[in-house]
Write a structure and sequence with these properties.
Shape: globular
Number of strands: 8
Structural class: alpha/beta
Number of helices: 6
Distance between the termini: 31 Å
Strand order of the largest sheet: 6-2-1-7-8
């Protein structure tokens, strides 16, 4: 019944609450779990970059460091694009989940994409013959829900693929 299950994750508690369900479904139906992480492109300056300080912490390169020539505008050699950092984090995160699931006998595919999360989830499901999308929800209601919106809700409304929603464990 289920050969391919899409598990989109952003690392939130709501997404984490789905993992046991996905594992059980995969083992029950011998399904492959597609672990998808979507990097949302920054809406601001596309040239915003990050670099590491002396302690190895990421920081924006928008401010000049003491003693640097003015021509560098505070950017250290080897600085990287914010989206590249987020993509690398997403790849590492999905691989860590895959390692855990594979240890439990599940087949996995790790994918990192860039774009609007709801659109990328639906597109990936359509392109890869996904049988079910399993997503977490925060269970928000009222004004908080109206203002925040929900990627899960958008996917449920727009997707032709069945969507299993699991409420976040409180």
């Amino acid at each position: 019944m289920y050969d391919h299950i899409l598990y989109p994750t952003d690392g939130s508690e709501a997404a984490e609450s789905v993992l046991d369900h996905v594992r059980t479904l995969s083992n029950t139906y011998d399904a492959t779990i597609h672990i998808l992480y979507v990097v949302t492109p920054d809406s601001g300056d596309a040239s915003l970059t990050l670099d590491k300080d002396e302690q190895g912490n990421w920081r924006t390169g928008m401010f000049k460091r003491k003693g640097e020539p003015a021509s560098t505008s505070g950017m250290a050699k080897g600085s990287v694009d914010v989206n590249e950092v987020l993509r690398a984090e997403g790849e590492g995160y999905t691989q860590a989940i895959a390692n855990e699931l594979e240890g439990d006998g599940c087949d996995t595919v790790c994918v990192t994409r860039e774009g609007k999360p709801d659109e990328e989830i639906i597109t990936y499901a359509d392109e890869n013959d996904i049988d079910m999308i399993a997503m977490g929800t925060h269970g928000r209601s009222g004004v908080e829900h109206a203002f925040l919106g929900s990627v899960t809700e958008k996917v449920v409304r727009k997707s032709a693929t069945p969507v299993l929603t699991i409420r976040q464990n409180d």
